[in-house]
Write a structure and sequence with these properties.
Layout lengths: L1 E2 L39 E2 L8 E2 L2 H4 L11 E5 L5 E7 L6 E7 L6 E2 L14 E2 L5 E6 L2 E6 L5 E3 L7 E6 L5 E5 L2 E5 L6 E8 L13 H9 L1 H23 L7 E3 L4 E8 L5 E8 L9 E4 L8 E4 L12 E7 L5 E4 L13 H10 L13 E3 L10 E3 L6 E7 L4 E8 L4 E9 L11 E3 L5 E6 L6 E6 L5 E2 L7 E6 L6 E9 L2 E7 L5 E4 L6 E6 L5 E8 L2 E9 L6 E3 L6 H4 L1 E2 L4 E5 L8 E6 L13 E7 L16 H12 L3 E5 L9 H5 L8 H16 L2 E11 L1 H12 L6 E5 L10 H8 L6 H7 L11 E7 L7 H13 L5 E6 L9 H18 L1
Parallel strand pairs: 1-35, 3-40, 15-16, 43-44, 43-45, 45-46, 46-47, 47-48
Antiparallel strand pairs: 2-41, 4-5, 5-6, 6-7, 8-9, 9-10, 10-11, 12-13, 13-14, 14-15, 17-18, 18-21, 19-20, 21-22, 23-25, 24-25, 25-26, 26-27, 28-29, 29-30, 30-31, 32-33, 33-34, 34-35, 36-37, 37-38, 38-39, 41-42, 42-44
Organism: Pseudoalteromonas lipolytica
Pfam families: DPPIV_N, Peptidase_S9
Protein name: Dipeptidyl aminopeptidase/acylaminoacyl peptidase
Length: 830
């Protein structure tokens, strides 16, 4: 990737107001290939501390309305002159919708009787961009963008979705498992296809048993009745074939199936449907007791099954030619590696532990559509004219991803790209599509070690369009193929800006220069960008900018409250902690005490390390954190003399493939090694007493707290584990099987990675905070570990339960109770 020259800029984290002075540390490299995370300075300066009013624990844990009610779910209006966003009402959970012109600083609330007039984020546009189509409350609407006239296409209680402009200028939409075409000039509606999840009707059957055949021979009435049925069936078929007024669009996909996805071609002449076995999402025993129910009884809430109970499942890809009526199920045997025993080494290791020998054999693997957790696109993508279709497929064992096209002449899948990972293929960074009016694909791939953009003609080699030690995401192609816009952390792992690359020559240029966390949406006319931008010390707001290099932005919303701006909060510094185990440093936020003086000695500071959740999540970045309560709690601790560190340990997002997969088959080992490096860094650089360090976190962070206290018992004096995983065999399949395979295949990985197997190592003080109606990490996780600790006769632990809370706490009183306990733990033990 070649970058056009842009003005050098100072790399900083961010200020709440423009009056803050920021110190620089890093300039922009001239080409992407020169940018490397290891080149970034060891510390990034951040704003001076804000406000003058002390933050209290009660305020930090209060309902977030007091921060200001930030814009949500923003999108462009079809005219490209205004935006639409939702805003929460004060004091309740309802949202109102607002429209704001991009040249205005004020917004107008949309009346409830006008909600259907403002379009939708996933609205689609006609080829000439003169019409917009969208769904609202299960009905389909078409808006003329010149006149503003809105036509309601459907007005009924059925649920319609997925409006789609066809190449002939008309509109298609989906209702249930059927697709309809609407002539926009006349309003005439035609059923294009009706899919049935059943076997095809067998029609009139000939007798097939001895006594049935004899019955037809001996009894004239039976024979005559059978003949009449056959005649009637034949006539009905003739009418369907010869009379155009009758829809002949029924297709049968098989009994006991469910429809994973279906996409109609832009020309309305073909369709790809993907089916899989219809299975319940849970087993009968998968329940969760709810003790605080509205009828004062114990309710058995239904919950998902555990990874230990999952069984392989595969899908069928069905190509349907609507003109000929031909329906073909495409085989996977043309995909490279479709029958490889990719887990042979893992199986061999597990067999050997049990004194057995594993013999590797080839066998077809279970394969399904790719499921990207952040997608707003389908894994089935047609080219512009509907003559070609591409699918992104993944193996159930998580080791392969294929980008394949359909050869309609030979009814086969053609592999265009295979991405293999011995650990697991990422469930993010899978955007793909076709260049407009072209038979060339573009897609994201981590094959270089970082997510980058590639293009590939169907019969040619792939070309890498972006290169460097940074992560690319969120692709948007322009109508004329002149640019693919993308989001990337080119200059620093924690700083995200918007860029664009020319697919023809791979030349990239920087678009935004905002220093923080920035997301974007290209306007329908492609002239402007709607930006959602935040900084370390300030929540996200909406901005607008021209869609060009080195653009200038205008802030549209100002929703942060004066009360929040007045609070005295300590701005964290972004530091690069040297790693004892990798060449890359571990990026972390550090909250220095209010009275800290650089160079002080004595090793007398107390410290806390916070462990973010999700595992694959980035929190040491320069934008506003989803952990805003923790941010204020850390500021409070720092104001009282603590050093607080928030690490992007190995497994965190934003640092490339190898950082992500370091935990493969050993969750809780690399991460705790990184925490140990964090403690050492604080001792050397922040005057911290290593005998006075605590740790805490929720979900994955709670799991890490357990693993730290159990496997390195001298590292922390105390720890708080919130909504924690204790045994990965009880967690869900899609997440866990990526990292640890499945328990029946790789029990070694589960035993090596689950805290319950290491509980005997507990020496320090432990607080377990467990919500009881958590359908993500079950309350049972904490119950089983508590029983294990009791049986091990451990003394330094206590448990707090939260009867009405799910995985993500909701009630401010619960938040306050939880953090009072954490605060007390650190006060009393460090």
């Amino acid at each position: 990737m070649k970058f056009k020259t842009t003005a050098n800029k100072t790399l900083v984290a961010l200020a709440v107001a423009s009056s803050f002075m920021l110190a620089g540390c890093q300039t922009t490299a001239s080409t992407a290939t020169e940018v490397s995370p290891t080149q970034v300075a060891p510390m990034v300066a951040t704003p001076v501390d804000t406000g003058s009013s002390e933050i209290t624990l009660e305020q930090a844990m209060a309902h977030p309305d007091w921060l200001g009610r930030q814009p949500e779910r923003a999108f462009w209006n079809g005219d490209s002159k205004s935006i639409v966003y939702a805003q929460k009402q004060q004091g309740n959970e309802l949202r109102d919708l607002y429209v704001q012109a991009v040249n205005s600083q004020s917004a107008s609330q949309v009346a409830l009787n006008k909600l259907h007039t403002v379009g939708a984020k996933n609205a689609v546009y006609s080829t000439d961009k003169k019409q917009q189509a969208y769904a609202f409350e299960g009905n389909i609407f078409v808006k003329n963008l010149s006149s503003g006239q809105i036509t309601q296409i459907t007005h009924d209680s059925a649920q319609q979705s997925k409006p789609q402009f066809l190449t002939d200028g008309n509109l298609a939409y989906r209702q249930g498992n059927a697709f309809y075409k609407v002539d926009l000039a006349t309003g005439r509606q035609v059923e294009l296809v009706n899919l049935h999840l059943d076997d095809a009707p067998k029609g009139v059957q000939e007798p097939d048993t001895y006594i049935a055949k004899e019955q037809h021979k001996l009894i004239d009435y039976i024979a005559l009745t059978h003949k009449n049925k056959k005649d009637r069936e034949a006539r009905e078929e003739q009418i369907k074939e010869q009379n155009d007024s009758i829809a002949n669009s029924q297709f049968y996909l098989g009994k006991g199936k469910r429809l994973a996805d279906v996409q109609l071609s832009p020309n309305g002449q073909a369709l790809v449907a993907v089916t899989t076995e219809s299975r319940p999402w849970r087993d009968e025993g998968d329940i969760m007791p709810n003790y605080i129910a509205d009828d004062a009884r114990v309710k058995a809430e239904k919950v998902r099954r555990r990874v230990a109970d999952e069984k392989p499942i595969s899908s069928d890809v069905i190509y349907i030619d609507l003109k000929s009526g031909e329906q073909t199920t495409l085989a996977y045997d043309t995909l490279p590696g479709f029958d490889e025993d990719v887990l042979a080494a893992v199986k061999k290791e597990n067999y050997a532990r049990d004194g057995k020998t594993y013999k590797s054999e080839k066998a077809p693997r279970a394969i399904n559509l790719m499921m990207d957790w952040g997608w707003d696109q389908s894994a089935i993508q047609w080219n512009t004219d509907g003559s070609k279709v591409a699918l992104m497929l993944e193996a159930w064992d998580n080791k392969d991803r294929w980008l394949a096209t359909v050869d309609t002449k030979n009814n086969t899948l053609v592999s265009q790209h295979r991405l293999h990972d011995d650990a697991w293929v990422n469930y993010a960074y899978n955007d793909f599509g076709w260049l407009n009016n072209s038979d060339t694909l573009y897609y994201l791939s981590e094959e270089s070690g970082y997510s980058h953009i590639y293009k590939k003609p169907l019969n040619g080699k792939a070309t890498q369009l972006t290169k460097g030690q940074f992560v690319v995401s969120n692709l948007t192609l322009t109508a004329d193929n002149s640019a693919i816009y993308y989001k990337a952390n080119v200059e620093h792992p924690g700083l995200y800006e918007i860029y664009r690359v020319n697919p023809a020559n791979g030349e990239s240029e920087q678009v935004t220069n905002l220093d923080g966390m920035t997301d974007y949406q290209l306007s329908p006319d492609e002239s402007k960008l709607l930006l959602t931008h935040s900084k370390i010390m300030s929540p996200p707001e909406l901005y607008v900018a021209d869609a060009k290099a080195n653009t200038q932005v205008t802030q549209l919303t100002h929703t942060v409250s004066d009360e929040f701006l007045a609070k005295k909060l300590i701005a964290p510094k972004i530091v690069a902690v040297p790693s004892s185990h990798t060449d890359q440093p571990i990026y972390a936020k550090v909250y220095y005490p209010a009275d800290y003086k650089e160079g002080e000695t004595g090793k007398n500071r107390k410290a806390v390390i916070f462990n973010h959740g999700a595992g694959y999540l980035q929190n040491s970045h320069m934008g506003w954190s989803g952990y805003f309560r923790e941010f204020m709690f850390h500021s409070l601790l720092a104001s009282e003399g603590y050093v607080v560190m928030d690490m992007d340990y190995r497994a965190s997002k934003g640092y490339g493939r190898d950082w992500r997969t370091a935990i493969y088959r050993q969750m809780g080992t690399p991460e705790i090694q990184d925490l140990a490096d964090g403690v050492s860094w604080m001792a050397e650089n922040a005057n911290v007493d290593t005998q006075a360090v605590g740790t805490y976190g929720g979900s994955y962070g709670g799991f890490m707290t357990f693993m730290a206290l159990f496997t390195q018992p001298d590292l922390f004096k105390a720890g708080a584990a919130l909504r924690p995983v204790t045994d990965w065999a009880h967690y869900n399949g899609p997440y866990t099987s990526n990292i640890l395979n499945h328990p029946d295949v790789d029990p070694i990985a589960y035993e090596k990675s689950s805290p319950i197997y290491f509980a005997e190592g507990l020496k320090s003080h432990l607080l377990i905070n467990a919500p009881m109606v958590d359908d993500n990490v079950f309350f049972q996780d904490s119950v089983r570990l508590v029983q294990r600790l009791i049986e091990l006769e451990k003394e330094n632990f206590e448990t707090a339960i939260f009867p009405v809370e799910p995985h993500g706490f909701v009630q401010p009183s619960s938040w306050l109770d939880e953090y009072r306990r954490i605060y007390k733990l650190f006060k009393e033990t460090l």
